[in-house]
Each structure stands twice: as C-alpha cells, then as structure tokens.
From TrEMBL:
Enzyme class, first EC level, given as a word: hydrolase
Superkingdom of origin organism: Bacteria
Family matches, as Pfam families: HhH-GPD
Protein's name in the database: DNA-3-methyladenine glycosylase II
UniProt KW keywords: DNA damage, DNA repair
DNA damage listed as a keyword: yes
Keyword DNA repair annotated: yes
UniProt-listed SUPFAM superfamilies: DNA-glycosylase (SSF48150)
Reactions that this protein is recorded to catalyse: Hydrolysis of alkylated DNA, releasing 3-methyladenine, 3-methylguanine, 7-methylguanine and 7-methyladenine
HhH-GPD domain: residues covered: 58-211
Taxonomic lineage: Bacteria, Pseudomonadati, Pseudomonadota, Betaproteobacteria, Burkholderiales
Biological source species: Variovorax robiniae
Length: 217
C-alpha cells in the first residue's frame, strides 16, 4: 500500500490498482469501457479498523447526513481519540443522547469489548484469509457479512472480494451486462469469473457506473 497525503488525513490506495485495471480491461469488455471513464480515481482507505467498524454501525439504516451528525456527537463524548477503552468508559445515557438507538449502543459496546479483549486478531489480519476475517467480524453484534465484506474492500483493501449481497453490485451488473434485466446471484458470479483475482476492483468500477462519486468507507 502506498500512503498519499491529502490535507491532514493519511489516505492509502492499493498498490495493485494499475495491474488490476490492465487485467480487467483485457478480460472484460464492460471493464474496458468503464475504467477509462474515471481517470486516476481509485479505491481509498483511511482511519483505523475500530473507527471504521464503529462508523459502519452508527450509519446503519440512516442517511449519510444523519449518520455524520450522530457520529460527530458520539465522537465529541470521548476525552481524546476513538479507542475501544474510551468507548467502554462512556455512559449509556450519554451515548443515547447522541441519537444512537439502544441497539446501536449495544453493538458499539460489543465491538469495543471484542477489540479491547483482543477477541479479534487485528494485527494478524494482514496474513489471514478473507473468510477467516469475515468469521471473526460477524461474531460481533451488529456486523453481518455485507459489512464485513465492505471492511475487507475499503479498509483492508483486499483485491478479490465479491459482495453478492450488495444491491449496488447486482444493480450495476444488471445495467452493464444484462440491459437492465433482473440478475441472480448465480448470474453475477458467472460475470465475475472474468474479474478474478480482482473482483474488488471490478466491483468498485460497477459502483462508479451507478454513482461517479467515489466512496471512502
């Protein structure tokens, strides 16, 4: 991974991106058309693992704007930085006053406990297979397979994740490969055969075909 400075935030982009784009353009007619449309824009990762997952919990089932408002209030409760230990010191009533539901408070506390007790092996993730990381993450309350896969793509920047539960991916495959006709998971999996070993990159471009503004998870 190569660090890139943007303002005061350190942003990381995958070192395999150019190689992946060449592979996809060579193997897939849709990718050959899509990739040049987005220039040098690429997947970006920022922040630490705990903060990324906490943000994903706060943002569940609410708009981006509402999630940011709640997140800002939640973050303001902390004395210094967002750490599992600092979250565990917070009072439930104070967390609820930020706009967090009782369930999301429970999820955030469970997330903090998993990190604080090292029930998740953060330092070992770089050497672990995708499915083993997903297995650890879905054991945390409030984190399902989709969230775990987004974490693999946007935080760990794993190159070959195919999130078949993602509505945007299925919609984008329908529009780009099937003229808008309904697409099954099996259809999507068949399309993605040509993408391997860079399914994450192809998925990113499919998302961009629906919404050109890149997302930083």
């Amino acid at each position: 991974m190569a660090p890139v400075k943007k303002a005061t935030v350190e942003i990381f982009t995958p070192d395999y991106w150019e190689e992946a784009c060449k592979h996809l353009a060579r193997k897939d007619r849709v990718m050959k058309r899509l990739i040049p449309q987005f220039g040098d824009v690429r997947l970006e990762s920022r922040g630490d693992a705990f903060t990324t997952l906490a943000r994903s919990i706060v943002g569940q089932q609410v708009s981006v704007k509402a999630a940011q408002t709640v997140w800002d209030k939640f973050e303001a409760l902390l004395p210094r930085k967002m750490t599992p230990a600092n979250v565990l010191k917070l009072k439930v009533d104070d967390m609820r006053a930020c706009g967090l539901s009782a369930r999301k408070v429970e999820y955030l506390v469970d997330l903090a406990i998993h990190f604080d007790t090292q029930a998740v092996h953060v330092n070992a993730w770089k050497h672990m297979a995708d499915e083993l990381i997903i297995e650890e993450l879905v054991a945390i309350r409030g984190i399902g397979r989709w969230t775990a896969e987004m974490f693999l793509i946007f935080h760990l920047m794993r190159p070959n994740v195919l999130p078949l539960d993602d509505v945007g991916l299925i919609t984008g495959i329908s529009h780009n490969y099937f003229s808008g006709d309904p697409v099954s998971r099996s259809d999507a999996r068949e399309v993605a055969v040509a993408w391997a070993p860079y399914c994450s990159v192809a998925t990113w471009y499919i998302w961009r075909s629906l919404d050109p503004a890149p997302v930083a998870y």
